[in-house]
């Protein structure tokens, strides 16, 4: 049996892969940052290098 420890951020536009132990969980999904978890309410991205989600 394999334990999943990483998953792509649940934000569709986001390219980030998050460690589940460090992710932000909301509604049963895993996100890399507060902006992603909250649906980018102010239009800001996650701020991670190379990712342009918003």
From TrEMBL:
User: Which superkingdom heads the taxonomic lineage of this protein's source?
Assistant: Bacteria
Kindly state which keywords UniProt assigns to this record, in alphabetical order: Metal-binding, Metal-thiolate cluster
| Upper classification of the organism | Bacteria, Bacillati, Cyanobacteriota, Cyanophyceae, Gloeobacterales
Which protein, by its recorded name, is this?
Answer: Metallothionein
Q: Which organism is it from?
A: Gloeobacter morelensis MG652769
InterPro entries recorded for this chain?
Answer: Metalthion_dom_sf, Metalthion_fam14_prok
